[in-house]
From TrEMBL:
Highest taxon, organism lineage: Bacteria
Source organism of the structure: Senegalia massiliensis
CDD domains: SIS_GlmS_GlmD_1, SIS_GlmS_GlmD_2
InterPro entries recorded: GlmS/AgaS_SIS, GlmS/FrlB_SIS, SIS_dom, SIS_dom_sf
Protein name according to UniProt: SIS domain-containing protein
Domain SIS, residue spans: 31-178
PANTHER family to which the protein is assigned, alphabetical: GLUCOSAMINE--FRUCTOSE-6-PHOSPHATE AMINOTRANSFERASE, ISOMERIZING (PTHR10937), GLUCOSAMINE-FRUCTOSE-6-PHOSPHATE AMINOTRANSFERASE (PTHR10937:SF17)
UniProt keyword list: Repeat
A molecular-function term among this protein's GO annotations: carbohydrate derivative binding
Pfam family membership, one: SIS
GO biological process: fructose 6-phosphate metabolic process; protein N-linked glycosylation; UDP-N-acetylglucosamine metabolic process
UniProt KW Repeat keyword: yes
Length: 359
């Protein structure tokens, strides 16, 4: 009997897909590593929008840390209409899971035709899509086609693929020894195998707090460093599915104005990764717990009080987005379901046809 695919179908596939990506990464990145080795590319511009942009924000700091590369990020519309390529940029990467983002394709096309000495790379799950026509190197994200419009497995696959490209670049630039590479891969393997546990913990959390989660009219998600990308993807997922005002903030940015809208109906998720900055996030959470009952902690560390999901595992802060984002994928699906929103029913069906944001 045919079972209709949902977001949860793809969320549950993430462990096997990410393991497959990890097992094939050397083969998948062979041309990329060779070019980095030949050209010594150390200054990248990454073009992306939507969830692809959030994936870049989630992986940027790992790539920079492991390889010593400097990364700039830009939205394609801005690059096409308002920017030219900085003279120090030596590689441009365009990220589009579907390969159909019209603006990302046009941005890479601009580089291809106007900057002939710049290496261009497309990162996509459809290696036959139009974006690849303007690429010196094509990287297959390896997640296949996602038929549900609210991407989940494609996001984690993109994050992992980009992080593994960081390892390949580090090898090409002689920044990573064979033993260090093995250690990194082993850590990724351990994280991927924890994905079902994260789903289980999130399901428990939702069932415990669903009565309040299903009625909160406004959400903010606060992260910092690598987890800022998770906060932005949570914003995207909640906006797409729960369909209430939601915004992802960087920790300090939230304190410069946005905090003033907090009231007793306001929901705040605080994303903690294990470092000194978690103390500041904890202080902020403690402060607003006096003003709203809807403060939630999503943490890699052990926690035994308050409303929280604790991954309760030792995770490199720079790799943590790979697991932390799963919490918000599950919550966005369950909360939308709890509010009676039928995600299989399309809305704004003529949007792409009129706005032409996808080809």
């Amino acid at each position: 009997m045919y079972m209709k695919e949902t977001m949860m179908t793809y969320i549950n596939e993430q462990e096997s897909i990410c393991n497959d990506i990890l097992n094939k990464y050397i083969e998948n990145n062979i041309d990329f590593e060779r070019i980095v080795k030949e050209k010594g590319n150390k200054k990248w511009l990454i073009i992306a929008t939507g969830s692809s942009l959030n994936a870049v924000l989630s992986s940027k700091y790992y790539i920079q840390k492991i390889s010593g590369i400097t990364i700039d990020i830009i939205e394609p519309f801005t690059f096409i209409n308002y920017e030219e390529l900085d003279k120090d940029i030596d590689m441009v990467l365009a990220i589009s899971q579907s390969g159909k983002s019209a603006s990302t394709i046009e941005a890479l096309k601009k580089v291809h035709y106007n900057y002939e000495n710049i290496t261009t790379v497309s990162v996509t799950s459809d290696i036959n899509s139009k974006i690849t026509e303007y690429s010196d190197v094509i990287i297959d994200i390896g997640c296949g086609i996602e038929k549900v419009g609210f991407v989940t497995k494609g996001f984690t696959s993109t994050v992992l693929t980009l992080m593994l490209m960081g390892i390949s670049a580090a090898k090409g630039l002689n920044k990573l020894s064979a033993s260090e590479e093995k250690k990194e891969i082993r850590e990724f393997n351990n994280l991927i195998n924890k994905m079902p546990l994260i789903i289980e913990k999130t399901e428990y959390f939702y069932n415990k707090y669903k009565n309040e989660l299903n009625k909160i009219p406004r959400f903010s998600i606060i992260g910092y460093g690598p987890t800022f990308g998770v906060a932005k993807e949570a914003e995207t997922k909640f906006a797409e599915t729960v369909r209430v005002p939601t915004q992802g903030f960087e920790l300090e940015a939230f304190m410069h104005g946005p905090y003033l809208e907090v009231d007793n109906n306001y929901g705040i998720f605080f994303i903690y990764s294990e470092n000194n900055h978690s103390q500041r996030a904890e202080k902020l959470k403690k402060y607003f717990s006096d003003y709203t009952n809807y403060c939630y902690e999503i943490s890699t560390k052990v926690n035994q009080y308050g409303k929280y999901i604790s991954l309760d595992m030792d995770i490199d802060e720079y790799k943590s987005p790979l697991l932390l984002v799963i919490v918000f994928q599950v919550l966005s699906y369950r909360i939308s379901e709890g509010r009676g929103i039928d995600l299989s029913k399309k809305i704004f069906e003529d949007f792409d046809n009129i706005l032409k944001s996808k080809i």
